[in-house]
Design brief:
Blueprint (H helix, E strand, L loop, with lengths): L1 E6 L3 H12 L4 E7 L2 H10 L4 E4 L8 H10 L5 E6 L4 H9 L4 E4 L4 H19 L6 H9 L4 H8 L4 H13 L7 H8 L3 H13 L4 E5 L7 E5 L4
Helix pairs in contact: 2-3, 9-10
Length: 226
């Protein structure tokens, strides 16, 4: 589960951002702030994974927020959602390190694309992966990777797949049954087994037969690679 905050002074836009964010089960919204100063004060004692920020705001705008955030050594991922669309404004924001830049008005699909970009980079980072140029280009451009395309062909949804991956990574080194995984993430056992089989085929997880159950042997799964 990833924690996020929204910085937006327009209540209507803040509500839209909140709805789009919370429609993705992988994220939890910790707070909405009307300006950058309020958000900075919050982040001093409440580290978060992702910030979704506006550019034009009273008291402290998005660019000043970014500059202060980076000056303090905070590398939290930031997605800028704004009406600011001049080359100078865009360059200023990009030079201060944003993950994505979305211009208002925007679609839910474009918002989701930005979230997927964060998920893919965060997942690769937590797994200690090194990315090829093709993979980097795929992530930054928002295009689906070959692995994602393969998943879609097989009827596997990327959001659900990432939910399984996060669960397995959270129990690295442990061997879990499909029932245990099902209870933790709130999906049916049939669905969980289908995704586990896909991950097994792609070498993302390993499995073992547990003969110590006192009854019928059960399969256990682990992200440990062995």
């Amino acid at each position: 589960m990833f924690h996020a905050i929204i910085i937006e002074d327009d209540p209507m836009v803040a509500a839209i951002n909140s709805r789009y964010l919370q429609s993705d089960a992988r994220f939890v919204l910790d707070g909405i702030f009307e300006n950058g100063r309020e958000a900075l004060e919050y982040l001093e004692s409440h580290p978060t994974d992702l910030v979704i920020a506006d550019y034009y705001m009273p008291i402290m705008d998005g660019l000043e927020f970014l500059r202060n955030l980076r000056a303090g050594g905070d590398h939290t991922a930031v997605i800028m959602i704004t009406a600011a669309n001049t080359p100078a404004e865009i360059l200023d924001v990009l030079s201060n390190g944003v993950l994505d830049y979305i211009v208002k008005p925007f679609t839910s699909e474009r918002f989701q694309e930005a979230l997927e970009k964060y998920i893919r980079l965060s997942g690769a980072n937590s797994r200690g992966e090194r990315l090829s140029q093709e993979e980097i280009d795929s992530i930054l451009s928002g295009k689906k990777s070959l692995k994602t395309e393969e998943a879609l062909v097989k009827g596997i949804q990327s959001q659900t797949l990432e939910l399984l991956r996060n669960c397995m990574e959270g129990h690295a080194g442990e061997y879990l049954t499909s029932d245990e995984i099902s209870r933790e993430i709130g999906l049916s056992r049939i669905t969980v087994r289908r995704y586990l089989n896909f991950m097994l085929e792609n070498g993302e997880i390993s499995s073992m037969v547990d003969y110590t159950t006192g009854g019928r042997p059960s399969l256990r799964y682990s992200s440990s690679g062995g």
